[in-house]
Amino acid sequence: MRLALIIMLVSALGSELAGQGVVGTWQGYWTRAGDTMPVTLHIRRDSGGYSATFDADRLRVSGIPFSTVGVQREGITMILRGDRTTATFGGVQRGDSLVGSFVEDGAAQGAFAYTRARDIPVPFEEREITFENGAIRLAGSLLLPPGIKRAPAVVFIHGSGAEGRWASRFLATQLAAHGIAALIFDKRGVGKSTGDWRQATPADLAADAAAAVARLRAEPRVDSARTGIHGHSQGGTLAPMIAVQTPGVAFVIASAAAGLPMDSVEIFSVLNSILPQARTAQDSADARNYTGELVTVAYRGRPRARLDSLVSAFRDRPWYFPPPAPDNSYWTFSRHYAQYQPLDWWAQVRVPVLLIYGSADQRVPAQPSAERIRATLQRNAPGVDLTVKILPGADHTFRLAPGPGGWPRTAPDYLPTLLHWLGDR
After folding, report:
1. Residue 371 to residues 258, 260, 263, 364, 383, Cα–Cα distance (Å)
2. Under 8 Å CB-to-CB from 61, ≥6 apart: which residues?
3. Whole-model pTM over 0.85
4. What is the DSSP string of 210-224?
5. Helix (H) / strand (E) containing 69
6. Contact, 287 vs 278, CB < 8 A?
7. What is the DSSP letter of 363?
8. DSSP string, 190-204
9. Angle in degrees, 0-180, between the axes of helices 262-274 and 281-300, rounded to the nearest 10
């Protein structure tokens, strides 16, 4: 999950007690360019000083931590560094109000206003757990709905990159509030998990997921016969492999799952990123030529001579980007995933499946992927319980075009689709 649009942070001035008064829960809004978004802020004091997190339903985030929290007599500054931007908020506390402004990468952006709120108990129980996949020790959070002795359950599988448990926390809290247990965990090499995701093969990540499923099914308050998986993007693409190889997977939710060869998906994704910068038809053709050659070298091992010549020819084009450095994990990742054929695994799936896509996805070709996976399942398992949902206008993360403030909006059918599908089963 990309956090470039949600990397904004809140701050407040301390009281006469050098900031002690800012600790607690605050409810309010961020405002930018006439667009207002509700946000809840949680500020805590711990042994290391201060920490803070925020929740925003519109952004589908819960418990996003701030990287830096500094409280002084004259104010408090909170900073969150994301994939592409850094944002800092600063302001003042006046009794039970927090007001101020925020900047992103040094440019004036907007304002915020908060009111102190009561700490509302969450509608689920949460605890830290660990489990192992061989030498890899994985850490996560288990969310359990109260009052249910044997709850259905879902393991959340990561997307690409350095994804921690926070990426799935919002959806996990929604499921737990609706009576479904959830396990979210840090990808290997992220957060409190050991290992290195950069060197992991699809089989390695599938084995991590299998260990998570086994751990969740062993939980006394989880119904092991109603435990499934939810994977988005890379996680959705690996979902059929996980379902086939892991005992006890009762259902599969695969969102933005690729149904084409991995090199084709990579070309689709890269071209959607660079073609908007092309200025002429020839420019577009050259961008396609360059991208195809780069991906062929990365995924199929073609020698670099022609790619290097294209680098020299196109380095001044507006769409151009240099190939990753020779020691970049991109090359290892590409070789590993070139061998992965998602349809071979979908052909073996025999449990209920929900496929969900955004029609405007620019990272995974939604319609072709859905059609190929559907055809594969129907050909190999004609009676399988299959639901396909393509959300109009939604992107790779099921968000619609952002409002004037730059904050995205979630497709209205996204969360109801997940909850209704699970509820029906």
Report:
1. 11, 10, 18, 13, 17
2. 6, 54, 55, 166, 169, 170
3. yes
4. HHHHHHHHTSTTEEE
5. strand 68-72
6. yes
7. S
8. STT--S-GGG--HHH
9. 150
How many Å separate Cα 29 from the centre of its chain?
A: 23
Structure tokens at 222: 């989880």
* Ramachandran category for residue 63: left, alpha or beta (phi over 0 → left; psi -120 to 50 → alpha): left
Query: Are the CB atoms for 377 and 353 separated by under 8 Å?
Result: yes
* DSSP annotation of 393: T
**Percent of the chain surpassing pLDDT 70:** 95
Using CA atoms, how far apart are residues 155 and 22, in angstroms rounded to an integer? 36
Mean per-residue pLDDT, 348-375:
98
Q: Which residue has the tokens 């507006």?
A: 318
Separation of alpha carbons 57 and 39, rounded Å = 8
Helix (H, G, I), strand (E, B) or coil at 80: strand
Range 228-246 average pLDDT: 98
Question: Looking at beta carbons, which pairs linking 97-105 to residues 24 or more positions away fall under 8 Å?
Answer: 98/10, 98/11, 98/12, 98/13, 98/22, 98/26, 98/28, 98/41, 100/10, 100/11, 100/12, 100/13, 102/8, 102/9, 102/10, 102/11, 102/30, 104/7, 104/8
Of 47, 56, 61, the closest CA to residue 26 belongs to 56
